[in-house]
Amino acid sequence: MSPRLLITGANGFIGSALTDAALARGWEVTAAVRPNSDRTYLQDRRLRFVHLPYHTPPALAEMLRQQGRFDYVAHIAGATKALRSEDYFRINTDYTRHLAEALVEEDLRPQCFLFLSSLAALGPATNAERVRPDQPPMPVTTYGASKRAAEEHLEALTGRLPWVVVQPTAVFGPRDRDLFQFVQLVNHGLELYIGLTPQRASFIYVSDLVALMLAALERGLQGRKYIAADGRDYTTDDLGEAVRTALGRRTLRLRLPLAGVQAIAALSEWAGKWQGKMPALNREKLRELGGANWHCDTSETFSLLNFQPQYDLYRGMEETVKWYRQHGWL
To answer: What pLDDT sits at residue 286?
Structure first.
């Protein structure tokens, strides 16, 4: 029989890519999405759908009982931007805990429960080298703290729930709308950077992340966390070069002092609260910038999962820009 996989947040950028990859393997995929979610990228007729009421544990447990046992669960649903700090913890922390505990209490434990966390849960490198899987977690954002708190709940279930955690760095690729804003800017001839010096950064192309997640589901060690990046060291200038090259554009490059951007971000947040939506430029995001070192040590991930990325930033950006053009985004 084909493995049964439950994917939460299946309609999103990463969730839909994982859905496509699992279906291509012939897996039976159930997509957990809200009733009013955009299902543009979930059109395959083999898909099954379910709405999971994470906020109400008894109803969540009942819905899971109706679905029966899954071989694998990939919990991707979460909030990357929120107007209030408590919303990060409600969505990223509490909902993860409710789902994991329901699977345990209803005796519906999968072979593997994968939680898609974030490199933000570890925080930037604490020395001159790189982010390491064994460094003390020191998230610098509320988002990162909420993901770290969810990891702690899973750690408390060790021995009762077979879990793995994947901590990706910045993810890009087709369907992504966050980095697309920068691509649009470069397409119009402007490279805009925050901070007067290039930031040390890391990236992973979405298809590589999905392949890594599938490897973690199938052969990941219970209770292990895996940093997800392509294994190469970049700066934000490399990002600009990759986008510029893929687009075939010449640009004007500007660097904005962090202090000045903080004021702009505060105003942007104020406007966002009136509109009921957190803007992409906010003070939370700025805490991840400003010279932070996000170079990663991925040697343990690659060795334990016998995994090797197929894309670097430049090749991945070529594919991404091609997709944006083919689908009328550019």
So the answer is: 62
pLDDT in tens, 119-178: 999 999 977 689 999 999 999 999 999 999 999 999 999 999 999 999 999 999 999 999
> Do 237 and 304 contact (CB within 8 A), yes or no?
no
Query: What is the helix (H) or strand (E) element at residue 28, kind and residue range?
Result: strand 28-32
Q: Does residue 114 contact residue 71 with C-beta atoms inside 8 Å?
A: no
pTM strictly above 0.85: yes
Distance CA 57, CA 76 (A): 18
pLDDT given at position 84:
84
Geometric angle at alpha carbon 234, from 304 and 186, rounded to 5°: 130
Residue 81 Cα distances to 72, 124, 178, 236, 322, angstroms: 27, 19, 11, 21, 27
Contact by Cβ (8 Å): 157, 182:
no
Q: How far apart are the first and last CA of the chain?
A: 42
Cβ proximity of 312 and 242 under 8 Å: no
Rounded CA-CA distance 247/121 in Å is: 33
What the chain holds in terms of domains, given with CATH numbers, is 4-176+202-231+294-311 (3.40.50.720)
Taking alpha carbons only, the member of 318, 133, 292, 315 closest to residue 221 is 133
Task: For the chain, count helices (H), then strands (E).
Answer: 12, 13
